[in-house]
Amino acid sequence: MPEPLLNIVLLHPQIPNNTGNVGRTAAVTGCRLHIVHPIAFDMSEKARRRAGLDYWHLVDCREHASWEAYLEAERPARAWLYTTASSRPHWQAQFHRSDHLLFGSETDGAPKAVHDWILRQFGDGNRVNLPMRPHPDARSLNLATAVACGVYEGLRQVAGTDPSCLLSGAGNP
């Protein structure tokens, strides 16, 4: 299978509807979805059918038993961690084709080991955020919304003004 435009990495997702929505984003953009376990719901085919995920066959999805298994299998050359712990807006990042966009769980964010890995491998500049107004009741965006924002900024940079790369099947020219 050809390399995707971008890789979406969900670290320990907790809410099945969010993962389903992220799967839809992956399907329509030609991104590869990585789901890193443990997760808080059933990903079996039966569970997906029951949830009405009739598009899941369009999702290039890889499941990984752990963070370590993900690193071993994928060996990401470039990765960006979306986190509220960063003050760098994601539009200041320079995304490249096949980059891995990492998103933590809805309840806990990304584990410390993931932050540490990003810092060791790439430095603090590869931790980015989606700017929000400073209000205590507006802590963060919904996971699926955050992923869509990240993916479309990445695609804007990777595809530029020529979205035809999205029209060729799996998002590859």
Task: Give the helix/strand layout.
Elements: E1 6-11, H1 16-29, E2 32-36, H2 45-50, E3 60-64, H3 67-74, E4 79-82, E5 99-103, H4 112-121, E6 127-128, H5 143-159
Helix pairs in contact: 1-5
Describe this structure as you would to a colleague:
- The chain has 173 residues and is α/β, with parallel strands linked by helices.
- It has one domain (6-167): Alpha/beta knot (3-Layer(aba) Sandwich).
- The protein has 5 helices and 6 strands, in the order βαβαβαββαβα.
- It has helices spanning 16-29, 45-50, 67-74, 112-121, 143-159; strands spanning 6-11, 32-36, 60-64, 79-82, 99-103, 127-128.
- The chain has a 6-stranded parallel beta sheet, sandwiched between helices.
- Helix 1 (16-29) packs parallel to helix 5 (143-159).
- The longest helix has 17 residues, at 143-159.
- The model is unreliable at 169-173 (pLDDT under 50).
